[in-house]
Amino acid sequence: MNQDYIKPDNWSVIEEGFDTERVKSSESLFSIGNGAMGQRANFEENYSGETFQGSYIAGIYYPDKTKVGWWKNGYPKYFAKVLNAPNWIGIDVKINEENLDLNTCTEVRNFRRELNMKEGWYNRSFEAVLKNGTEIAVNVRRFLSLDLDEAGIIKYAITPLNKDAKIVYKPYIDAGVTNEDANWEEKFWEPLEVKKGTNEAFVTAQTFKTHFKVTTFMHNTIFANGEDAHISPSTIDSTTDKVQYTYGTIIAKGQTSSIQKIGGYTVSLNHENTLAAAEKVIKAAVNSGYDALLQNQIEAWAKIWEMSDITIEGDVKAQQGIRFNIFQLNQTYSGKDSRLNIGPKGFTGEKYGGSTYWDTEAYCIPFYMATKDQQVTRNLLTYRFNQLDKAIENAKDNLGFKNGAALYPMVTMNGEECHNEWEITHEEIHRNGAIAFAIYNYYRYTGDYSYIPEKGLEVLIGIARFWHQRASFSKEKNQYVILGVTGPNEYENNINNNFYTNYIAKWCIDFTAEQITKVGTEYPADHKRILEKVSLSANEIQEWKKVADDMYFPTSEELGIYLQQDGFLDKDLVPVKDLDKSQRPINQKWSWDRVLRSPYIKQADVLQCFYFFEDHFSREELKRNFEFYESFTVHESSLSPCVHSIQAAVLDKMDMAYTFYLRTSRLDLDDYNKEVEEGCHITSMAGTWMSIVEGFGGMRVKNDQLHFSPKIPKEWKGYSFKINFRNQILKVAVNHNETTFTVDGDQDLTIVVNGNPIIASKFVQIN
What we know:
The chain is an alpha+beta fold. Belongs to the glycosyl hydrolase 65 family.
């Protein structure tokens, strides 16, 4: 834990007191989104202190030229920037001729932020003394509509406390923005058109290179004590990329003046005429009105929480943590559009670039499968199918592979590789395995096999071909090996025979061969279509199987463990507990050379294999490998604590499981890795959900049935969650005395609890 200023609360994230040192961290934590767009919690009024300005639109990116010291063949040509979108929230404020700026106010008191996760809005309030002596109270509420997802709304209210006040509001929209992480200090937006109306304005701009067109819009209304003041702008200032209106009003001491600003984006991904679309959005929002839009927001979030909420009794910080994670996941991805995916920072920051990592398949899909309609997960899988040609092109052009072998990118926006670190881009190839596993996981969980003959089998064949060509035969070992890789533990690069990579390569080939046979038997027309399309023969499948059947796995007979890679035991094996805390996090304290030579593990690696393929190993094997590798794991990846929490629960190490749960659930709220100001760790948040449902709840799918082995941390009185399993809603509630299972509907559901099959109907209690 590196910060502790967020107030514990069951349903809200709350900050009290103004501290300039916390501004950027809070901009991340109080971010809002609606699946189509999102923004950091920047102040609407001008702020001259340190800030990280960021608004983002789903699917909009820029191919920033890769910047390296020297070029290597196969290097990605660009690094995909998540673009800082034009600013629509800005409202400059002047009170009695003095600019409102919290960085220059004489005093700021009663400062409070609240992100209300239950209802989906962000509120900021404070009292301030300006340099001219005017004292004011300010309350600002903002939300991004889930129903009208191209629009957001701000209500910005000012009450003068010690004297009458002349208030000037200067709302604006501005496409002249830059990215926090731009390599070349260039702008990414080309202004095209500015249009001004009485109280509304539009700036249309397009991205350089990719030519995404976006119309940013605003509509302003001035109120006095809650009534429309019918004030028109006194001046309208504009440039090629910015429009700013000026509204002046005089308000008596103790009375309240406010501006209501509707804003947002319409994009060429969805509209031929973005300007006309923006005008329609404004009309719809104005016709609905603020109160109705807010009520619709509350109802939309109530519907989301009805299915996805996890309750925890007796531990407010744990409760706040899981709801924060669930809230951010639902803000980031709604599942409506198969062109979109779940970026590692969502709408909270720009770090990492790209919209898709292997995180989606390995961590996010279980959450979306269990809390949404299965079509949401099909959309995520379809996203990869639609980019199969690019994955084949990536393997061919960058690595020299042939015959339709597919290497999915480490990071992508449109299917092209856009990650610019060689040791990750071309060595962290295990991401192919996660994509194949997600196809299996979807079928295992939903029972919907149709995706595989329709789309999934082509993906699996491309991946199997990749593994077949990527492995090489070692005469010394008389087995197939995979050389020069980076496993999930990115603190080891260019190593040989990463256990997890080798294991998932073998599994991918075996699983693909099984599906080819199954599709041939059950879907002969699809089987014929696919094999003809990809020119796959029985002889080629036999060649794959040779690799899978003779894959090498590094082991230590003495320790009874699988080795993370061939040379792991050659390291100076000093456990983390003996590492000076002043040296943590090592990725911020040590040179990369020192990190690579150390035994320290960034995240679950061998244990990631045990997580995916738990049934392939004995409990004793898990225990030996867990106890060995956890002792060297520094958990400096956000993806690490959740896997360890789940496995600690399996091993009845409940204190450890709880500690890891708290870390994954409050990773950002408590800023464990000293980097939250760069944005939240959205994709790993699904791991928090997994820690409870799969860890403490022990939920598994085996032989088409749900299995549970419920456990509860001693710190909790009880917890509950719901899952949608094959279109049946099951609620699980656990306390220290009993577990209850409730099925929503009249159809019974057979489940297995602690190894014993039971029929779950309306209400079943297990003591």
